[in-house]
Design goal:
With 449 residues, this protein is an alpha/beta fold. It is built from 14 helices and 15 strands. The protein has two domains: 171 residues, Aspartate Aminotransferase, domain 1 (Alpha-Beta Complex), CATH 3.90.1150; 265 residues, Aspartate Aminotransferase, domain 2 (3-Layer(aba) Sandwich), CATH 3.40.640. The longest helix is centred in the C-terminal third of the chain and has 22 residues. The structure holds pyridoxal-5'-phosphate. It comes from Channa striata.
Length: 449
């Protein structure tokens, strides 16, 4: 409370002066100053309530009392680094192991999704003794230099593609190379990876890892076609590489039917390394790499210690345990399934009324609404999406944002306590705004083209 003493304009002025300007604000033209939050609701300095449809970090709801209580209790007792023997780290690793296939049984705790992916990259390269990495187009895997190198979403705007990085097509069945009318898009996109591996081998190079989100997020809330991952894994492993599933956005029950999004690809698919982050600590910096005994063994075998000052400390692990308890105790996976299905259902109905809605896709509370200027060409309606996001915030105090290479996909990744009423409200508001845009603002779509 003591920290909230500045007027909004003062905060803004100080932020402009003191904080690096590449750290951008949401709604940069008219930022929101949030001073407290609970569940799926954010409150500004005047007590006005905003509905949070995008925080994929506050998985069990903002400031969940069980989580804050666990954090405070452990903070009061002890916080040290993970070099002292302590129960929390092992109890937490054991609980995580129970959510994963048996072979993913060794854990390294870190502080952010970027750290987890950087460590996964090191492990893959050390285990395979190969260097090259295959990533999906438009992917983002983190802000460290090593990860900018494997994130086409970033490196295309910066130094460009390194010779050890290879980009496979995004398996997007709405606007990608193989679409919903293809008899087997999963196989067709996987065979693109096979071709890429052959090209890499042709250059005398070798694959260390195939790195992909289990549901590509920045790429536009993409749902991978069935059969894709197991086929890719077969090709990658036969080239001597490993498969890394980036679950930084998608893990911890978001998809509802499963705890991890990679499990949507069926029981015959299991990654070799899973990275996790954002929702793990419900806002506390907590992240992790889970891997097999063989890969962990190879990482250890060079004799170099891995030391991470904060990773796996007793407070972080107490928080992680509390988050798991809430996900289970409040049946948040069941809620994600039911509420997500309701959201999909209402958005699909909306699609029948508004030509601008080209596609509705999702699983659990990971949902995308893709806007297009014409359904035939599927031309991205970027301006319309931006206007819609702005009006939802200004007129209804609903926070959503966009993703995808053209920023024309509205993304919904709310805390898993999101309710049926929240869904009804959001969809009603989108309907009202689109109806109004269609009646008064048809120029807008032309601007898009
Ligand atoms: C898929 C994915 N991986 C990794 C990261 C990096 O995580 P962090 O920002 O915690 O370093 C992000 C962050 O947005 C992400 O979306």
């Amino acid at each position: 409370m003591a920290l909230q003493k500045l007027k909004k304009e003062e905060t803004l002025e100080m932020r402009k002066r003191l904080i690096g300007q590449s750290c951008r604000l949401f709604y940069a033209d008219d930022p929101v100053k949030i001073t407290r939050a609970r569940g799926q609701f954010l409150y500004d300095e005047n007590g006005k309530c905003y509905l949070d449809c995008i925080s994929n970090v506050h998985q069990v709801g903002h400031c969940h009392p069980s989580v804050t209580k666990a954090a405070a209790a452990q903070m009061e007792l002890l916080n040290t680094n993970a070099r002292f023997l302590h129960d929390n780290i092992v109890m937490y690793a054991d609980r995580l192991a129970a959510t994963l296939p048996e072979k993913l049984c060794v854990f390294y705790f870190v502080n952010s999704g970027s750290e987890a992916n950087d460590l996964a990259l090191r492990m893959a390269q050390q285990y395979t003794q190969h260097e090259d990495v295959i990533v999906l187009d438009h992917a983002y895997h983190g802000h460290l230099k090593s990860l900018i190198d494997i994130s086409p979403y970033k490196f295309r705007k910066l130094a460009g593609q390194k010779d050890w990085v290879h980009v496979a097509p995004l398996p997007d069945v709405y606007r990608g190379k193989y679409r919903e009318n293809h008899p087997n898009p999963g196989e067709a996109y996987a065979d693109e990876v096979k071709r890429l591996i052959e090209e890499v081998h042709g250059k005398g190079r070798k694959i260390s890892a195939f790195f992909a989100e289990s549901l590509p997020s920045v790429g536009g809330q993409i749902i991978l076609p069935q059969g894709y991952s197991s086929r890719v894994a077969k090709y990658v492993r036969s080239a001597g590489g490993v498969v890394v599933a980036d679950e930084v956005q998608t893990g911890f029950g978001r998809v509802g039917s499963h705890f991890w999004a990679f499990q949507l690809q069926g029981d015959d698919f299991c990654p070799d390394i899973v990275t996790m982050g954002k929702p793990m600590g419900n806002g506390h910096p907590l992240a992790c790499v889970a891997t097999t005994a063989e890969i962990a063994g190879a990482f250890t075998s060079n004799g170099v210690e891995y030391f991470n000052t904060f990773g796996g400390n007793p407070v972080s692990c107490a928080i992680g345990l509390a988050v798991l308890d809430v996900i289970e105790g409040e049946d948040l996976r069941g809620n994600a399934l039911r509420v997500g299905a309701h959201l999909m259902d209402l958005l699909k109905k909306l699609q029948m009324q508004h030509q601008v809605i080209g596609d509705v896709r999702g699983v659990g509370l990971f949902v995308g609404l893709e806007l297009v200027t014409d359904r035939e060409q599927r031309t991205p309606a970027t301006q319309t999406a931006a206007r819609l996001v702005k009006r939802l915030k200004e007129e209804d105090r609903i926070c959503v944002s966009t993703d995808g290479p053209w920023e024309n996909v509205l993304k919904f990744k709310p805390p898993l306590c999101f309710s049926m009423e929240d869904v009804n409200l959001v969809v009603q508001c989108i309907d009202r705004i689109l109806t109004d845009m269609e009646a008064n603002d048809l120029k807008l779509d032309k601007e898009d083209i």
